[in-house]
Amino acid sequence: MSQPPQYEKSGIRFRYPENWRIVEEQPDGFSETVSAQSPGSGFWMLQHFPSQQETKDLVENLLQTLRSEYGDIEAEASQQRLLDVDLTGHDLHFFCMDMVVVARTRRFSLGNRCCLLLCQAEDREFAELELVFDAITTSLISETRDLS
């Protein structure tokens, strides 16, 4: 069985499903962003920042940005632990174009950087992709550590 494709750039490395595509945003001098997009509505998006930057309010700022874009959002604080890394953020539900959307935001430290993660999909697809999102994130944590 062959290994899934691997993304590696700027000290970040992770594996993602073969039928997903990678989209990179231009660095803004403060952070870098990379997304893995499913063939459907789902995506896994990582924004990473140098550790010296002030990142305490990243999750709250992302929640406010999503609220300004989508309006009413049901948000529940959430904590998760993958490998030995604590991830904090929100589990979200909101409407977009007559669809219920499920999303997760997570903030965590990884090596010398702070990471902000957004996983999002239409609710039925999210149920199918939740394990894939966790696998990509686990790969990120495990494989990025190996680069250090």
List keywords for this structure.
two-stranded antiparallel sheet, 2 helices, single chain, Protein Transport Mog1p, Chain A, alpha+beta, 148 residues
Structural overview:
- There is one protein chain.
- This protein is of the alpha+beta class and 148 residues long.
- The protein has a single domain, classed as Mog1/PsbP, alpha/beta/alpha sandwich (Protein Transport Mog1p, Chain A, 3-Layer(aba) Sandwich), CATH 3.40.1000.10.
- 26% of the residues lie in helices and 48% in strands.
- The two termini are 28 Å apart.
- The relative contact order is 0.21.
- The mean pLDDT is 88.
The percent of residues in helical segments reads: 25-40%
Give the radius of gyration. Answer: 15 Å
Q: Which CATH architecture would you pick? A: 3-Layer(aba) Sandwich
Which fold name corresponds to the CATH topology? Protein Transport Mog1p, Chain A
CATH superfamily: Mog1/PsbP, alpha/beta/alpha sandwich
**Total E-strand runs:** 9
H-E string: EEEEEHEEEEH
Structural class: alpha+beta
> Class, according to the CATH hierarchy?
Alpha Beta
Contiguous low-pLDDT stretches (5 residues minimum) are none
Outline type: globular
Spatial arrangement of strands, main beta sheet: 3-4-5-9-8-7-6
Number of helices: 2
